[in-house]
């Protein structure tokens, strides 16, 4: 029977987009696209939305952690010693941005169980579109630390810029953000906010078309926090 419908061409690898000063990886994979499509669907209920966000972040984290630092180690197999690696210390720091980023935490720590977790509470004022920080719980010293920021939505970029600045203020210079959706406008804002010598990496399931007049990603998925946890 002939296969029907859309299929991913084999030569369609994840794209490292040509953003001059920032590394942006849009992960092209049929499972990512399938789960993201269901996540966008307005008929997807909250329990399903949570499960899909959890599954998606694990797939994205696989790509986002390609440069995670490891150290050589030797273990004894039942037959003989074998060379391998283990995650270097200090352990990576994972930082979900509350609320919506919390929906990505379990999926990330499932992949890196030894990661430490810091928390940032941030909310965007829906009139000014400016991000406000209402909670900060981070190690004081992040020098030399690999940091992974989790937030499903990169819209204007104000929230992510504020979050990365808080990490930089504590000495972090190696920051990767994992998002489910990013808007071109937000990517440009993040890129221009930090010096070229400390590039930010962004790994996302998709880069959408644009922002609408209310700062929402189009076509997007709506308000990620509300869809995960309810309207506040
Ligand atoms: O790129 P920006 O324009 O700054 O917008 C993106 C931010 O908006 C959403 O959070 P929201 O403020 O809705 O808070 P919530 O997670 O508590 O719902 C989202 O999770 C990001 O944190
Ligand atoms: O599209 C958007 C923009 C900001 N925050 C969201 O949750 N969704
Ligand atoms: Mg919200």
TrEMBL record:
Residues 27-230 form the Phosphoribosyltransferase domain. Allosterically activated by GTP. Uracil binds at residues 217, 222-224. Pathway: Pyrimidine metabolism; UMP biosynthesis via salvage pathway; UMP from uracil: step 1/1. GO terms for molecular function: GTP binding; magnesium ion binding; uracil phosphoribosyltransferase activity. One of its GO terms (cellular component) is cytoplasm. Its EC number is 2.4.2.9. One of its GO terms (biological process) is uracil salvage. SUPFAM superfamilies: PRTase-like (SSF53271). Keywords: Allosteric enzyme, Glycosyltransferase, GTP-binding, Magnesium, Nucleotide-binding, Transferase. Binds 1 Mg(2+) ion per subunit. The magnesium is bound as Mg-PRPP. It catalyses: UMP + diphosphate = 5-phospho-alpha-D-ribose 1-diphosphate + uracil. Its cofactor is Mg(2+). Transmembrane segments: none annotated. 5-phospho-alpha-D-ribose 1-diphosphate binds at residues 99, 124, 151-159, 223. NCBIfam families: PRK00129.1, upp. Belongs to the UPRTase family. HAMAP family: Upp_B. This is Uracil phosphoribosyltransferase. It comes from Actinocorallia herbida. The lineage of its organism: Bacteria, Bacillati, Actinomycetota, Actinomycetes, Streptosporangiales. The gene is upp.
